[in-house]
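Example 3.2
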Amino acid sequence: MRLTLAIIASLATATSYAQYPSGAIRFVVSAPAGSSLDVIARTIGDRLRNRLAQPVVVDNRPAAGGTVAADIVAKSPPDGYTMLISFNGPLAFGPYLYPNLPYDPLKDLAPVIVTSSQPNVLAVTAALPVTSVKTLIEHAKAHPGKLNYASVGNGSSSQLTMEFLKATAGVDIVHVPFNGSPPAVTATVQGDTQMLFAVMQPLQPQIQAGRLRAIALTSAKRFPLLPAIPTIAEAGYPGFEALAWNGILVAAGTPRPVIQRLNSEINAILRDSTVKSALNAQGFDLIGGTPEDFAKLIRSESEKWAPVIRKTGARID
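Structure, written as tokens:
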């Protein structure tokens, strides 16, 4: 009898997995509407809706550097009907920045897939009289504490990359955090802040219009999608590398067949030539791969940046 009941339960569970999804999926985005992460989320969400024949509802929750969004999904039912797209900050940096992080990225969230990885671009307002990392550092040293930099949020790659550069070059530049890339870029264009690190997508229109100037990238070598922009390593800081990556996760405990289904569908979307062409044009290097690849990335980035965070003294209350 016990064996029969176990078999029936197993068959029922397998059947429910085979029918996934049978309703709307909530896609929580740890960045505001109009941000680079939002662009990726909506691109994937639109195509995932068609592939799964179910609604995919984007829900932007950018508060607290993206940690609110991560916490929402970490505490959601582990059934695959609530997904998260997030980035370095809430997933790899958060445990070292927040004294009371309400979730454990490695225990409470299950990786599905890496969506993209790209270098940050160091952009300055057009009014700032610098054209390179060398002249920026010289200008900052001549005006200690007088320059401001915008970031896309506390604990983001945008912030920590600048803090890393400040510590490496020995300069004093004041941090002004914003809730996502749209307001951070606007503040820099208007001159309220003088510089920022961000991915290319939100910067590109302002660079093309001459309101911002791109002076460096944070990849170890020149980035094939942005070959004309030199790296910070080339400017006299060998080994300087800070990539901005993002990916999709669900609550820990979500059944493996559900994770595999989402991984397979999103991999197909990232390989689509139309999607690839459109996002490459905005500076996104699409990645894909297995859930294990994403889990490995989170762990390795966490281990890499922990000592950097401790060295810079970055902390968020």
